[in-house]
Design brief:
This protein has seven helices and four strands, in the order H-H-E-E-E-E-H-H-H-H-H. A four-stranded mixed beta sheet has the order 1-2-4-3, sandwiched between helices. The radius of gyration is 17 Å and the shape is globular.
Length: 155
């Protein structure tokens, strides 16, 4: 592991994101191992709409091994490594609400949570197994959002 990754991992311990990731890994009865400067928690008992989830420098791989996840998405570990860097530069847990804001913006602009999400684009959409979608205007996104609201149906 290089010195820059070591600094990133120390930062993610200090900003408490990696300890949170370890707590989640333990709570989901994952098998932990070190891979390329990351802690990988395989077989996490989690329901996620993703192949992996990074918290600090811990990559949670739900219901499968890392090898099985990499078979599906070969660039996955490189993508998740970038998310670990994002936790470091966001000073830890502020990454979480920032990510959700970016995912909301992406949905508004593209209809999915990744295409216009700064964090997913920076980590490499294709590396993470995401398709590159088409952007739409904010107005079109707002019209789509309004149509999805339960109180606007039939109005």
């Amino acid at each position: 592991m290089g010195s820059s990754r070591l600094m990133r991992n120390v930062a993610n311990v200090a900003n408490l994101s990696t300890p949170l990731g370890l707590l989640v890994a333990l709570a989901t009865r994952s098998r932990l191992r070190r891979v390329d400067g990351l802690l990988v928690a395989e077989g996490a008992r989690l329901r996620l709409p993703a192949t992996a989830l990074t918290i600090g420098s811990v990559v949670l791989v739900p219901k499968r091994t890392l090898a099985e996840a990499l078979e599906r998405i070969p660039g996955l570990l490189e993508h998740e490594d970038q998310h670990a860097w994002q936790y470091a530069y966001c000073l830890g847990l502020p990454f979480v609400p920032a990510y959700f804001v970016a995912a909301g913006w992406s949905w508004l602009r593209s209809g999915d949570r990744a295409t216009a999400n700064h964090f997913e684009v920076q980590a490499g959409l294709e590396l993470g197994g995401y398709r590159v979608g088409r952007l739409r205007t904010v107005r079109k996104g707002l019209v789509d959002l309004r149509a999805r609201l339960p109180w606007s149906r039939g109005a």
